[in-house]
Amino acid sequence: MLYVLRVRGLDGQPALLERTVYASWIADAVEHIEPDCESVTQRPLDEVGVVFAHGEHVIDTLAAGTRDAELLGIRRGTPLLRVRRVTTTQAGCPVEWSDDRYRPGTVTFRIHNSIGANPLVRQPGE
User: Fold this and answer.
1) Which of 18, 50, 64, 103 could hold 78 in an S-S bridge, CB 3.0 to 4.6 Å?
2) What is the pLDDT of residues 87-117, one digit of tens each?
3) Is 126 exposed, middle or buried (0-12, 13-18, 19+ CB in 10 A)?
């Protein structure tokens, strides 16, 4: 497996920590991607034909620990929006596991659902 920690910025300020673990079978394709690459999912598609087809996301909050606070330039205990994700291929083979943590005020999520297609599910205890 390949473990990657990226600090992403907006307007020169740290905004997001990405902690991603890539499956061993795709690690070589991801390992050589330059740090400032905008789309880590596009490069494996272009180079080896891997499609990041499905993703399951869990969104919650947590307080910034010491390391997160250092990397994001905030105080320890500052609330962070966290998005955890598992991404798979079309066949259901896991590609990546990700834990993304956003500084307050840097991102907004919009979710649209309808009676005809409602993919949202509430899980007790999450």
Assistant:
1) 64
2) 998 899 999 999 999 999 998 888 776 666 6
3) exposed
